[in-house]
Amino acid sequence: MGIPMRRPLQRAFRQSGSGQWPAAEEAATKGTAGHSSANQNDSQSVSSKMLESAATALASLLVLGTGFGLGGYLYHRFYKWLVLHKMEGAFEPGDPVLELAAIGKQVPNTIATSGPPGDDHWILRDEQAKIDAIVNGTDRGHYHLLIGEKGTGKSSMLLDAMKKVDGEGISMFETHADLEIFRVRLGKSLDFEFHEDYIGSYFSERGPRDTTALLDIERAFNKLEKVALKRRKRVGKPLVLIINAVHLLRDDEDGRDLLELLQQRAEQWAASNLVTVVFNSDDYWVYERLKVLATRMEVTAITDLPKRQALNALAKYRQKYFQETPTPKILAEVYSRVGGRLTYLNRVAKSPDMLETCNEIIDTERRWFLNQCWILGMEMDDDVMDQQKYASAAMVLALALVKAEKEQQNHPAPDGSHNIPQIPLHTARYIMTRADFIKEYDHVNIFTITSKAFVRADSVPMQRAFKSICEEPGFEDHLEKTLQRISDIESLGRTREIVAKDLVLGGKYKISMSDGPRRGEKVTEIILEQPPEEDDDDDEKDDK
């Protein structure tokens, strides 16, 4: 029973041809097929995972890029709005300049300002009405230059006009010779940071501040123009930009470039009624520079007070704060010594002894003039000749003004005010024989050049100092010796000395003209003829 059953199994085993049992073969076949399908599934899953990761990364980049880009754009737009909003706030009522000027105290800081609320002005100048119209925006279509000597009250009138409108629509700042400091002060007055607080510059190769001060000033004016356009639509009045002490700019290439930029903007804004620019200067050279391109500029000269206004203000001040009534004689003597200059009247009004203070002011001006321009006479060294040219020219002009004062004593002013002698600018240059010194004299407050191109002493105390110096015994002779010494030094500088040693030793030069190698050509011949040499014996005999 067992053998017959074995043969069919062997037969089946042989027929399979694989040397395995059929079930094992089928299992092996199924295992191979499953393994290959698993490999295919793994490769498909890796590819899908890679695609999924790439898609996720790309989506993340798109989201981040869009977020950063949109955020950066919104920040940029917000920053631009914030810049204009801050600049608009700089022209809101209330100005830091008014607080720094300390206007509104119980005791005024000068006799030109008002006292407590409700009090009248100590001095109501004729120019104040025009300054008020400029500052409050009524006077438009022009830009203005206020010119006058130091201490005449230009800044005081501007501050008083600003106080009347509480600084609304007005910005004021001080000039500086350095363009970087000028840029900072302009930015402070306009509340403009010149993009120094802009964080978007972290993502750029060059920041917005990577430029010059002049370009920064131009950018600030571009923003100011946008603010002025919005204000004109809303209020109908121009902004007012006051640039104080413009004379502090240097009269060099940088200073002229800045002044030209300011004037171009002032002309453009005046024509469109956007911004009224007010320049305040002590020196004449600013007017000379602006006049070349000026078409809409108005010049207002601020001078000393007339006699009546000065005496009234002085008497009122002494009566209120010192409880005394000065006699007309004392008031007239004060005016005779210091004139109507507000800065001097302010010092005198606060002094217990007014006449003594007047003498101190005159003596201070005299020492200042002598320290700057005293002459050294015939004994001066040639090393100081350049400085002595500067000093002697000033002394010559001072002497001419003293002589002019003597000639016009018979022609006093109708109201009794000081009539300081003055000379036309071209005549003053002719008297000094120099054209370049007068601007420096004006800058150091020795002489002044008026808006009508006349030269005179900077103040009444300075004119009195001129007179005291020029009337000293021997002054004109001392000045003449100094001028002669300068002329001698210049003559020596132009002289060249040639020493011929052969002539000293007894030789002679024989100069003759002869015909040259070419026809018609003449040749100059110089022949040295030396004396014959003597023998040594003859020399010894001569010595004996």
The biggest sheet, with number of strands, parallel, antiparallel or mixed sense and barrel status, is: 5 strands, parallel
* Total DSSP helices: 20
Calculate Rg over CA atoms. Answer: 46 Å
Low-confidence runs (pLDDT<50, min 5 residues)?
Answer: 1-21, 103-109, 114-120
**Strand element count:** 10
Strands side by side in the biggest sheet: 2-3-4-1-5
Q: Give the helix level as a range of percent.
A: 55-70%
Mean pLDDT: 82
Based on helices, strands and strand pairing, what is the structural class? alpha/beta
User: What fraction strand?
Assistant: 5-15%
Span of the ends, CA to CA: 182 Å
Can you tell me the overall shape? flat
Outline the structure in words.
The protein is 56% helix and 10% strand. It is α/β, with parallel strands linked by helices. Strands 2-3-4-1-5 form a 5-stranded parallel beta sheet, with helices on both faces. A 3-stranded antiparallel beta sheet has the order 6-8-7. Helix 10 (307-321) packs across helix 11 (328-338) and helix 11 (328-338) runs parallel beside helix 13 (354-373). Mean pLDDT is 82; it is low at 1-21, 103-109 and 114-120.
What's a concise summary of this model?
By secondary structure, the protein is an alpha/beta fold.
